[in-house]
Amino acid sequence: MTRYAHESTMTFNPGIDNKPETLLKAKADNNSAAHSEANTSSQLLTVKDHKRSITIALIVGSLLAAINYGDKIIGNTMVNTDWIKLGMTYVVPYCVSIYSVWSAKKKH
């Protein structure tokens, strides 16, 4: 029976130094390994990935812009908020595309 909740997760390994400072160092080493893994995963995206995502954003964004704002652009009735929304029409597909690439590469 354990007195503290954290005691149940700690195990005693015969032949291994089980002093608290050694266990804390091992935990710190694991954290630094996870941190270095996070650093490499942030470098997964290449210039080619960004170019592909921009291409997708231009195609999808243009299609959506034509559907949603085509009549306002042709009729010259766009207001400031419409232009901001139009810009977001291109930004959102780019973000979705680049996130998809990053997510797929991170799994491998």
Automatic annotation (TrEMBL):
TM region(s), chain numbering: 53-71, 83-102
Source domain of life: Bacteria
Keywords: Membrane, Transmembrane, Transmembrane helix
The protein's name in its UniProt record: Uncharacterized protein
